[in-house]
Amino acid sequence: MTPHSYVLLTTILLLFPLGYLFLACPAFLLVRLSIPKVSVLLRAMFRGYFWMLLIVSPLAMLAYAVAGKLGPAFGMGVLTTAAFFAHRWFLRNFDIALQARDSGDAGAVRKLRRLHVSAMLVNSVVLAGVILGIPYII
């Protein structure tokens, strides 16, 4: 395989978690996050999403660098760094809100919803950036 084949492969692999979250997350807008099983499922979905980003984006960065596409490689490095710090921050705040909800705090469900919607918006921006960058990558 050529370096450009790896660029294409990693770009496609990167689109899977981004596209999955983009399509699956709106369904959680229709259910109450006060239901424990729903919120645990949502947390597990975000955890898997972040882990996929943390695995695929460094591989994409390496593939872009080997192919000589230093701009996209830098972008993947930024995405990797952002996913690393967002993963910790998001899941920690989600767990804090879950514990607050379980202890009876009525505002915790709103905080869970805000985290959910903000993660959806950030994912949409990243997905749009990757899709709009495909012509420049390939």
Please explain how this structure is put together.
The protein contains 4 helices and no strands. The mean pLDDT is 92. It has helices at residues 3-24, 36-66, 70-102, 108-137. The two termini are 15 Å apart. With 138 residues, it is an all-alpha fold. The longest helix has 33 residues, at 70-102. The chain has one domain. Helix 1 packs antiparallel against helix 4 and helix 3 packs antiparallel against helix 4 (108-137). This is DUF4149 domain-containing protein. The chain crosses the membrane at residues 6-29, 49-67, 73-91, 117-137.
Please specify the SSE layout and strand pairing.
Elements lengths: L2 H22 L11 H31 L3 H33 L5 H30 L1
Helix pairs in contact: 1-2, 1-4, 2-3, 3-4
Total number of domains: 1
Principal-axes shape call: elongated
Relative helix content = over 70%
Secondary-structure element pattern, one letter each: HHHH
Question: What would the keywords be for this entry?
Answer:
mainly alpha, 4 helices, 138 residues, single chain
Concise account of the structure shown:
With 138 residues, this protein is an all-alpha fold. The chain has 4 helices and no strands.
